[in-house]
């Protein structure tokens, strides 16, 4: 099994992309009062306490809300189901929100037994008649005296307020960055991209444009409605980064590239892209995890409407050969719950200052295959911008990316870690003293639990970087990583 040739099996990350119940009233006939001096007893309150939960209409989205007062016995209240999104690597989980009937009984008043009770009832009825008549008379007089009826439908709309966008809000981020996000179309599908120079250099995913390598057509659609043809400058399947150039354009709005080495789990992020050909779609979420090793398999032709499929989050071994590079993709990914769908690939993941912190690249979607693509279940993956920027600079300068190498073949150790299987002659690992059978458990301060995690950690480094490897034996060694150009057709 090998360090940079994942062919992993397992779950497949896919590259992107009540009415209230009626209150019942129960009437009770009053028996003839008995004679005597017993004073009338005070009847109990005719209403039992109703449901005291959240008022109807104010619940969480997707939940049926019980009314404040339930119906009579035998009446079933409205019921519903809340369907949560698909669970990671599994099916949909459904929460049954049925609410059992809550019955409200009107207590029967005790019989009135005294003559005084008759008098009280009579006076009450008379008072009600007088009160009702007075109310009707007052309403009539008000209407006759020209009382004004207010109709909100006829009220003028308030003036527009252009200053109501809060700095650092999702709206603010979208307004700043959306003009620098483009939709990229090939004969096989669509994706997104980020304008990085005013004359048309665009950063995107390799799998978005790979089907156009060798002279295929690429179209770039800008946010202002303009379109342009584009050509591939360079691409790197191992990191899923590509650079293209839109032709005959100038004065474009560019995105600001931030940094990804200071991200915090839980911080808010925004994604912009073209999911399912819906250009300019904005979603938001948080950073769910960092340094997530994601094996999306080897390069392959894009699927229809294509955001090509990857191989899986497998733990198969990886290899790095000093003279040859694989076309496998193992990401050192930022995980986010911002909604990312097929078509978001290549678009930006942004912090709340509107800076690009990642390139959206893959999603975990249950039931996906090369013929059928699923949607977001809240598990999306982005390439850290520090790595994407380094690769893009290499491509701009030389037309090729450089793959970072340790020079080993590794597999998963039974006790955890990456087990060294072979060592490339003259490579960084051999010079550091690594031997077959060694188990790497840490790279610098980063825990290594699988072969994929070692590959992702190496990919996150630059050629020439010095790293400290900790072995299961407790021994530590230092290695200076090397690099080799990625030879692919542009």
Automatic annotation (TrEMBL):
EC number(s) reported in the record: 3.4.21.-
UniProt record, GO biological process: proteolysis
InterPro entries referenced in this protein's UniProt entry, alphabetically: Chloro_Bact_Ser_Proteases, PDZ, PDZ_sf, Peptidase_S1_PA, Peptidase_S1_PA_chymotrypsin, Peptidase_S1C
Domain of life (superkingdom): Bacteria
One term of GO molecular function: peptidase activity
Domain PDZ: 392-475
Cross-referenced Gene3D superfamilies: 2.30.42.10, Trypsin-like serine proteases (2.40.10.10)
A Pfam family that the UniProt record links to this protein: Trypsin_2
Region annotated Disordered, chain positions: 1-109, 292-327
Keywords, comma-separated and alphabetical: Hydrolase, Membrane, Protease, Transmembrane, Transmembrane helix
TM ranges: 119-143
Bias-annotated ranges (Low complexity): 19-50, 73-91, 316-327
Family statement: Belongs to the peptidase S1C family.
PANTHER family named in the record: PEPTIDASE S12, PROTEASE DO-LIKE 8, CHLOROPLASTIC
Name of the protein this chain belongs to: Serine protease PepD
């Amino acid at each position: 099994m090998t360090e940079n040739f994942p062919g992993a099996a397992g779950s497949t990350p896919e590259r992107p992309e009540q009415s209230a119940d009626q209150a019942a009233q129960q009437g009770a006939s009053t028996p003839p009062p008995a004679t005597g001096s017993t004073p009338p007893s005070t009847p109990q309150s005719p209403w039992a306490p109703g449901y005291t939960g959240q008022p109807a209409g104010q619940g969480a989205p997707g939940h049926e809300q019980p009314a404040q007062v339930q119906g009579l016995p035998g009446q079933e209240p409205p019921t519903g189901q809340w369907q949560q999104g698909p669970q990671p690597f599994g099916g949909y989980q459904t929460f049954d929100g049925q609410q059992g009937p809550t019955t409200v009984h009107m207590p029967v008043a005790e019989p009135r037994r005294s003559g005084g009770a008759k008098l009280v009832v009579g006076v009450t009825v008379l008072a009600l008649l007088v009160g009702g008549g007075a109310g009707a008379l007052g309403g009539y007089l008000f209407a006759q005296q020209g009382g004004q009826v207010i109709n909100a439908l006829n009220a003028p709309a308030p003036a527009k307020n252009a200053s109501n966008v809060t700095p650092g809000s999702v709206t603010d981020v979208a307004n700043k960055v959306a003009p620098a996000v483009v939709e990229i179309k090939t004969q096989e599908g669509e994706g997104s991209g980020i304008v990085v120079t005013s004359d048309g250099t665009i950063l995107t995913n390799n799998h978005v444009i790979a089907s156009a390598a060798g002279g295929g057509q690429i179209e770039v659609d800008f946010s202002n409605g303009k379109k342009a043809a584009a050509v591939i400058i360079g691409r790197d399947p191992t990191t899923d980064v590509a650079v293209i150039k839109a032709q005959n354009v100038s004065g474009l709005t560019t995105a600001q590239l931030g940094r990804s080495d200071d991200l915090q789990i839980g911080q808010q992020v925004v994604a912009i892209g073209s999911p399912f050909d819906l250009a300019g779609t904005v979603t938001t979420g948080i950073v769910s995890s960092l340094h997530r090793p994601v094996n999306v398999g080897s390069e392959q032709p894009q699927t229809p409407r294509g955001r090509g499929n990857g191989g899986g989050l497998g733990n198969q071994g990886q290899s790095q050969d000093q003279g040859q590079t694989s076309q496998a993709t193992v990401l050192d990914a930022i995980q986010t719950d911002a909604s990312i769908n097929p078509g978001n690939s290549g678009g930006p993941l942004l912090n709340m200052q509107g800076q690009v912190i990642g390139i959206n690249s893959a999603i975990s979607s249950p039931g996906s295959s090369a013929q059928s693509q699923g949607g977001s279940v809240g598990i999306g993956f982005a390439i850290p911008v520090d790595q994407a920027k380094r690769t893009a600079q290499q491509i701009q300068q030389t037309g090729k990316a450089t793959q970072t190498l340790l020079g080993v073949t590794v597999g998963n150790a039974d006790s955890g870690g990456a087990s060294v299987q072979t060592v490339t002659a003259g490579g960084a690992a051999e010079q550091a003293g690594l031997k077959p059978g060694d188990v790497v458990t840490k790279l610098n301060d980063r825990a290594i639990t699988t072969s994929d995690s070692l590959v992702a950690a190496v990919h996150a480094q630059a050629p020439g970087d010095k790293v400290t490897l900790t072995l299961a034996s407790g021994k530590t060694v230092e290695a200076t990583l090397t690099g080799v150009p990625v030879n692919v057709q542009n």
